[in-house]
Amino acid sequence: MARKSRKFSAAVILLAFSLGFSVFAQAGSDAQEASSKQDVKQESKKDSSKKKKSKKKDDDSPKKARPEDSWQMLSWVEDDPDAVLKYEVVIEEEVGGGYRPAVTLQTEDNTTRMQITPLLEPGYYRFKVITYDLISRPAKVSEWKRFRVYAAHQPEIRDVSSRVSHSSTIYLEEYNDGVFTIEGHELFMPDKNNTSLEFTDYYLVPEGKDVEDGGIVPEILEGGKKNRSVTLKFDIKDLDTGDYHVVAKDASGLYTELGSKNELSVRYKKPFDLDVSAGYTCPIVLVDNTFKEFMGSQVWPISAVAKVTFMPFKHNWGYLGIGVTGSYTRMFYDEGNYTVDGNMITAHGLLVYQFPIRFRVKGTNQRRHAFTVELHGGAGIAYFMDYQYHFPHGIDTPKLNSTDISAIAGLSFQTYVTSRIYVEAGIDGFMAFVPDMKGIYLLPQVSAGFQF
After folding, report:
1. CB–CB of 73/113 below 8 Å?
2. Residue 418 structural domain
3. pLDDT tens-digit map of 206-230
4. How many structural domains does the chain have?
5. 105 in a domain, yes or no?
6. With CB atoms counted within 10 Å of each terminal CB, which end of the chain scores lower, N or C?
């Protein structure tokens, strides 16, 4: 007699094997047995109850099926149901290498599905199906099929804590090895060898997802005494920011309810980053020769650049946000008989992606933010301002101005000197859509910045 659960006295579940034979003539090989078991497990999942938190209860919604509704359910396939009056199911229990009669059941019609009543105790069994024809005579007998009845326990989780932080909340800025201690009741080890009559599966379900959809499967490190605790290990790279629930699911299909006691939260200490930087750039004109022809150069070193980024969406795969960047360039050319000067000003709105790189500080659980790789792109304007020729004797041409739409894209690399101060190096490329002047400009740049 298997040990009874405190909440379910003598409750058991059956994983029976679906029969797929032409009027019950199928060999009972181990491979076929394993295949049948998988089919029934999937069927059981569809009938399991779905318990999760809900902010609003809908009294009119249909009630979910309970896991026990599908316990000890037998089913088989009949090729000629119109020739069948009823079925008889003979079940025997495996005892000491042999078998002894357990129960014999009959269907009321030619249905090929029935639930065993009363429920069998946990153990190993076999069954065969006898087909009765329309004049109530035994017509065909299937081969024996072996199955297993699992013990049913209601798992309970009372606490989830990280081995490093001793809390159910972890911060991605900090080092964490992904090991968690789960405390509660009826927390068995998984059935690795497919031989146990009682076991528990564990996984991590994101907030808002259904338990039946599954989740992140951990590595099982060890079980505790009297099945009151278990140690799990998750890959931290799989844990994005958000709330999760650690779910323990019994062999019977019973699982822990979703609540605060089995909740796991993944956060950043800083909900957003605001980066401000300013520095030097040197525009280089590519493709178009207008500046070369009229101002004698394609490189303009008297320049400055500034950028502001706001990163409110922080995930383990990187940060997403918005930003603005602008540059100023002073242009001057002395031909000898005359001079030419002007100013180029750019301003662009950006969509920004950042990937921070952190290293663990030796001897602590802290992770130092060492580098950030950034990709950005956007659109804006290029303003060519006050371009003018100056001739001797105070003769000047009228000033030329042009405001044009432009697009920009770039890559930068930030190195953090302290937790807030960084040095940034990168290169942007932008194109100003100026009639008759399709220039592409490169802006290599070096800046210093501060993160708020």
Report:
1. yes
2. 273-451
3. 998 888 888 999 999 999 999 999 9
4. 3
5. yes
6. N
